[in-house]
């Protein structure tokens, strides 16, 4: 009986650890509040101070039609994926020196993962996947 109890406790602890490290879209949406002053996302999103972020992952820097990018951003030749975004959002000016983005960054890896999960919900047309 003790072996079953230990195994059960181990399984529960493993499940709890996995849930704690999983991406949380709701938390990512709350983190999105730091971005929304300059960016839009979703159906009908428009460029503001920064470009709209629909379909961000998989697109190249400087690719949003109608947005006036810095030459640094246009010339960065980066394709956005989770790793590149995580590095960028921690310190935008370090990743792309000369970017127009004025943002101190998000340093917390969990918050970045949650924000990434929120952003990844939206396809290039702003529809939730």
TrEMBL record:
Keywords: Electron transport, Heme, Iron, Metal-binding, Signal, Transport
PROSITE patterns: CYTC
InterPro entries linked: Cyt_c-like_dom, Cyt_c-like_dom_sf, Cyt_c_1A/1B
Entries under Pfam families matching the protein: Cytochrom_C
Span of the signal peptide: 1-22
Domain of life (superkingdom): Bacteria
Domain Cytochrome c: 23-123
Name of this chain's protein: C-type cytochrome
